[in-house]
Amino acid sequence: MILIDGKKAAAELRADLKQEVAQLKSKHNKVPGLTVILIGDLTPSQIYVRNKEKSANEVGLKSEVIKYPDSVEEKTVLEKIQELNSDETVSGILVQLPLPKHIDKQKVIEAIDPSKDVDGFHPMNVGNLSSGYESSIPCTPLGCYLLIKKIEPNLSGKKAVVVGRSNLNGKPMTQLLLKENCTVTITHSKTKDLKAECLEADIIVAAVGIPELVRGDWVKKDAVVIDVGINKTDDGIVGDVHFDEVSKNAKALTPVPGGVGPMTIACLLKNTIDCFKRSQI
Ligand code: GUN
User: Fold this and answer.
1) Ligand 1 atom nearest to CA at 268
2) In a domain, 134, yes or no
3) CATH code assigned at 59
4) For residue 189, what pLDDT band results from cuts at 50, 70 and 90?
5) Which ligand 1 atom minimizes the distance to the CA of 264?
6) 186-219: b or e for each residue (b if 16 or more CB lie within 10 Å)?
7) 94 CA to middle of ligand 1, Å?
8) Cβ–ligand 1 contact at 207 (below 6 Å)
9) CA-to-CA distance for 230 and 149, rounded, in angstroms?
C-alpha cells in the first residue's frame, strides 16, 4: 500500500512555487500578494490563517492578514473587500470561513472580484469550472486532484466515487475528475447503498464529515482512496475513512493528518500566483 505523503507533496509544490515567485519578481519587479480577512476568534480559523500566512511568506508572496472582531458590521467587511478589489498589490483575497451569523456568507463571496477569488467560491468561478473554462479551483479539491495524479497520471475511463456533495469539496472534485475523463458518481447521505457504490470505484474521494465511514470491505483492491475528513472524536482527529481497515485493501491512501491538509494551503499559494499571472497578461 502506498501511503500518500501530503506533507512531502506540499513541500515539493511550495519549492516549485518559490522558484516561480522569484522568476515573476525578476520579470515584473513585483510579487503576488495574498490578503486574508479573519473575523472573530475561533481557534481553528486562527490556526489556519497563521499557517496560510507562514506558508505565503515562505514562498516569497506578499502576505497580509486583516482581523476584525466578531461584532464587525457586514458593511465594513464589504467595503474592505471593495478596497482590496481595486488594490493592484493584492492578487488574491480570502475571507476565512465560517463567518459570524449576522454576516451573509454569499454576499461576502460575491463581493470578491472573481479574478482575485483564490478560494474559487465565486459563482463566476464555479460556473467556469463546470463549463471547463479557466477558473480558480477550490484549494482542497485541487490538492486532492494533484495527489491522485501523482498515483494515477492517466485517469481516463477510471471510475471515481465522490462521497459528499458540498460546494467546498464534493462538487468541485467531481468537476475536476470529469475533466480528466473519469466516470464520476457523486454520492451523499441519501444514497441508497453507499458501500455498493464505493465497491465499484477505482478512485474514492471521501469528503462527507462522518468519522471512519468508509470501511475496509467498501474498497476494491487497488483503489486509490483520498480522505478529506477532519473529524474530532474522543480518540482524537480521524478522517472519513477507516484507516487501518482500508490500508489493507487500497493501492494508495492518504493519512489524516498529513494527507490532504498540507496540500490545501500549498494550493492556496498556487491559486494566488495563478491570479497574479492572469492579471499580468
Ligand atoms: N475554512 C475552512 N476551509 C476554508 C477554505 O478552504 N476557505 C475559506 N475561505 N475558509 C475556510
Assistant:
1) 6
2) no
3) 3.40.50.10860
4) confident
5) 6
6) bbeeebeebeebbeebbbbbbbbbebbbbeeebb
7) 8
8) no
9) 22
Residues 43 and 100 in one domain: yes
Residue with cell 470561513: 97
Separation between Cα atoms, residue 188 and residue 126, nearest integer Å: 20
Q: pLDDT-based confidence at 95, cuts 50/70/90?
A: very high
Active site residue 119: yes
Nearest atom in ligand 1 to 98's CA: 1
Segments forming the whole domain that contains residue 63: 29-114
Answer yes or no: do 143 and 255 share one domain.
Answer: yes
16 falls within a domain: no
**Closest by Cα among 138, 145, 171 to 224:** 145
175 is catalytic: no
Catalytic residue among 62, 80, 96, 227: 96
Is residue 244 part of the annotated active site? The answer reads no
Ligand 1 contact, 119 CB (< 6 A)? yes
Ligand 1 in reach of 96 Cβ (< 6 A): yes
Write down the pLDDT at residue 281.
Answer: 74
* Same domain, yes or no: 147 and 251: yes
Cα–chain center distance at 264: 5
C-alpha of residue 28 to centroid of ligand 1, in Å: 30
Our answer on whether the CB atom of 126 is closer than 6 Å to any ligand 1 atom is: no
Same domain assignment for residues 95 and 48:
yes
Question: Per the structure, how many domains does the chain have?
Answer: 2
SS3 189: coil
